[in-house]
């Protein structure tokens, strides 16, 4: 089956790394026109009413590999928060990041927001259920990492509007991992839906024309950190802290190997901030990084770990016993190791934005810093984003499988929309 595109306009060091855990793919897993918008009574009612659902007895479980394996002999139902209600024409529903459900009944277009495993799970070279719409970079990763047939991949340029079965589609930079996109849907009746995938909201997003000039009726929101305790600092502040720590450490211990933990994609700005020169990564990661075409990284990748003290390892490998073996594999070239674990889950309320209060953990000649560098929005950023958009409905896409979590998020949405 071939899909017709009907829109317009991935020796010692290498051997050692082969036995390391593979790179994780998940992190854990912000217009003047708005002043003219009609300001009705923007309040959240019962979440299920708000989502247009009369029967709340639906599959709210997240699409994880564990739950998929436990139900491998059953056909899983695609949950409502992955469906886009664009039934303008019969047989044209769309889904976002819903590949682990097999062929979704009636689905004419499968959208992939970005190349992280919890979003593309279910995709493989055997995919044949329908066209996959994604950004150009994500399309390249689908081909080189998962070997998905190019006949099913429909790459879309960021910032360009496409017409798909009468629905206008625009992909927007999500400020998450490379290739990640917000997906904007504009229906013929003027209704607009925005699916954030995974994103880190920023003030720049308030200048995106399609969301600065048009009312968002339904917002599918990445609620990974939708909890007031998560108010971690900006990415820029964390990067400045990491660079400062690295410089001070190398001044005191020149024979130090610097390790950054990363996912298969994501966290690139952390290690590129540390060094503008050589970066060592294993063959599979080098292949992925070169596919980005980024000036400053592609041409500075090293195939030999002895050429540079900056090494990239899977974030799951940042454990003392693994790092000790890795340091020992360097034939005495380095006498100590400084490692960074960059993820929002390392955030502490007691530290807040005062990054100088972060205390590393050390064992022997290895020091590990957990730094709150996140590619998801913190609580304040989510609030600002929602209050800028003032959508009619908000559908959370993360942590929705628990009634308590859903209730808490509902109360936050109510407060934000009343302000």
Automatic annotation (TrEMBL):
It comes from the Eukaryota. This is DNA cross-link repair protein SNM1 isoform X2. Keywords: DNA damage, DNA repair, Nucleus. PANTHER family: DNA CROSS-LINK REPAIR PROTEIN PSO2/SNM1-RELATED, DNA CROSS-LINK REPAIR PROTEIN SNM1. The gene is LOC107008928. Belongs to the DNA repair metallo-beta-lactamase (DRMBL) family. It comes from Solanum pennellii (Tomato). It is found in: Nucleus. Its main location: nucleus. The keyword DNA damage applies.
């Amino acid at each position: 089956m071939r899909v017709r595109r009907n829109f317009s306009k991935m020796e010692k060091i290498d051997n050692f790394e082969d036995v390391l855990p593979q790179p994780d793919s998940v992190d854990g897993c912000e217009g003047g026109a708005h002043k003219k918008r009609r300001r009705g009574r923007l309040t959240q009612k019962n979440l299920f009413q708000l989502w247009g659902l009369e029967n709340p007895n639906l599959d709210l479980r997240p699409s994880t590999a564990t739950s998929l394996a436990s139900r491998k002999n059953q056909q899983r139902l695609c949950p409502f928060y992955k469906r886009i209600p664009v039934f303008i024409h019969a047989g044209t529903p769309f889904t976002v990041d819903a590949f682990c459900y097999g062929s979704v009944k009636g689905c004419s277009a499968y959208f992939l927001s970005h190349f992280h495993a919890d979003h593309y799970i279910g995709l493989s070279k055997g995919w044949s259920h329908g066209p996959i719409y994604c950004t150009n970079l994500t399309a390249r990763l689908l081909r080189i990492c998962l070997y998905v047939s190019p006949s099913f991949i429909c790459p879309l340029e960021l910032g360009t509007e496409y017409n798909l079965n009468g629905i206008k589609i625009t992909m927007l930079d999500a400020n998450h991992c490379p290739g990640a996109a917000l997906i904007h849907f504009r229906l013929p009746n003027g209704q607009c839906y925005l699916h954030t995938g995974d994103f880190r909201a920023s003030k720049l997003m308030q200048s995106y024309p399609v969301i600065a000039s048009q009312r968002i009726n339904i917002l599918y929101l990445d609620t990974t950190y939708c909890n007031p305790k998560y108010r971690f600092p900006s990415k820029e502040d964390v990067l400045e802290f990491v660079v400062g720590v690295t410089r001070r450490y190398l001044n005191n211990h020149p024979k130090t190997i610097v390790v950054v933990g990363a996912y298969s994609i994501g966290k690139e700005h952390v290690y590129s901030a540390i060094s503008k020169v050589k970066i060592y990564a294993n063959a599979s990661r080098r292949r992925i990084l070169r596919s980005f075409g980024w000036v400053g990284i592609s041409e500075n990748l090293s195939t030999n770990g002895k050429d540079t003290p900056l090494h990239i390892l899977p974030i799951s490998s940042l454990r003392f016993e693994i790092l000790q073996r890795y340091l020992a594999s360097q034939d005495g070239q380095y006498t100590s190791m400084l490692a960074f674990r960059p993820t929002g889950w390392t955030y502490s309320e007691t530290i807040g934005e005062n990054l100088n209060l972060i205390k590393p953990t050390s064992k022997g000649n290895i020091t590990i810093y957990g730094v709150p560098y996140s590619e998801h929005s913190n609580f304040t950023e989510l609030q600002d984003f929602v209050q800028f958009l003032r959508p009619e409905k908000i559908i959370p896409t993360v942590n929705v499988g628990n009634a308590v979590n859903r209730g808490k998020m509902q109360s936050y949405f109510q407060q934000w929309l009343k302000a």
